[in-house]
Structure formats: C-alpha cells, structure tokens
Write a structure and sequence with these properties.
This protein is an alpha+beta fold. Helix content is about 30%, strand content about 35%. It has a 3-stranded antiparallel sheet, with helices on one face. β2 and β3 form a beta hairpin. The longest helix has 18 residues. The two termini are about 20 Å apart.
Amino acid sequence: MINYTYKIKGTSVSNNNTILVIHWDYTGTTEHGLSATISMTTFLNPPSDNFIQYEFITGDILISWIEGKENIEALKQNILQQIIELSNSLPV
C-alpha cells in the first residue's frame, strides 16, 4: 500500500491577491519506507463567482483546486512506477 501526501511549497499571487499558480509536491510512501516525489506547478483559471479572499484560503482549498485541474491518478501511477524501479534496484 502507498500513502500519498501533498506538500504546498508556495503560490504565485497577482497584485490583487489572486492566486495564479500553486507550486507543490506529491509524494507516495510505502509501508517499507520507499518513496517517490513529483514536483508540480498548477496554473489556475481566473477567479469565478465563488471567489475566496486570500486570507481565508487554506491548504485543503489549494489541494481541492489542484485535484480539480490535475490528473491525480496518472501521478499515482507515475509514483508507483518510480517506487517499483527503486525497489528493483535495491540489493536482495
């Protein structure tokens, strides 16, 4: 089993405090401690009618925006492949 986690590394913000870009890592770690990380940059669409003021944006909100824009299943498959390659390179 692989445990997947997000790490928000930062955001790029416009002059009016609108988040334009999210910089983040997606890491998968096995129960044996093997892990792989993908660093990503997600570009956001202009704000909609559901605009949230910058000071009220949480990590969970950023992750929901990421999940709405990115193919998370493809990232999981990429991480799984990296972990398989890593485990195959370890001495027996």
